[in-house]
Amino acid sequence: MIPRNIITFLVSFFVFSPIWSAKAPSSKQQLEKIATHIVVGNVQAIYSYKQSEGIPLVSGYVYDRKVAEVKIKRIEKGKIAENLVYARYWSRSWKGIGLPPPGGQSYDPQPKVGQTCRFYLAKNASDGWSSKDSNQDGGYNVLYVNGVEPISK
Questions:
Q1: Domains in the chain and their CATH numbers?
Q2: Peptide bond into 85 cis (omega under 30)
Q3: Which of 54, 114, 134, 139 has a CA 20 to 30 Å removed from the CA of 152?
Q4: Beta carbons within 8 Å of 18's beta carbon, 6+ residues apart
Q5: DSSP per-residue codes, 46-88
Q6: pTM for the model
């Protein structure tokens, strides 16, 4: 016989895990309110590196940590003295045995080299994924989950 607490856990895991699995995209008004900086610019380059989390070759997420080099055309919020900004974001994929645990999804959409985009950024503030305290290095994080808006020419 299976103990009641295990049954309760399993039922709640399978019933509620879809609720925890994704963050709804923010509205434009929410992005504008939360962002410390908003810039429109051309993506000059994208730099990335891979980082594994979990047990190598068994299970875990593989993160593709990315930085977009953006040549600023216009600043819509905040002050930036430079004409380039480096915006951090990431994508991740599940590698290994079984289904991925509940959690966040990758940024969507993601910028492409040559694109003109509006970037909603957090500098020394919460970006919707990390806490304000963990984002205190002076870098610009893209607001999670949809802080990039491609602009049609």
A1: 24-150 (2.40.50)
A2: no
A3: 139
A4: 102
A5: EEEEEEEEEETTTEEEEEEEEEEEEEEEEEEES---SSEEEEE
A6: 0.81
